[in-house]
Design goal:
0% strand, 92% helix, mainly alpha, Methane Monooxygenase Hydroxylase, Chain G, domain 1
């Protein structure tokens, strides 16, 4: 049973990782724009979202 669950998680991770990379790229672009425009609120929102994506990425790679 543990092997089945592990296999399912691996399959889900393989599908999720490319999507997460696109989300990270988008959020980095948003952060760059916010920095250029000196939009403090958007900077904080983007940094928080990137932290969440980083955490999720680390969980998927384990």
């Amino acid at each position: 049973m543990k092997q089945v669950i592990k296999t399912l998680r691996r399959t889900d991770a393989e599908k999720r990782i490319p999507v997460m990379r696109m989300e990270i790229d988008y959020e980095l672009a948003t952060l760059h724009e916010a920095i250029v425009n000196e939009d403090i609120n958007q900077i904080e929102v983007s940094k928080q979202r990137l932290t969440e994506l980083r955490r999720e990425m680390l969980e998927l790679e384990v």
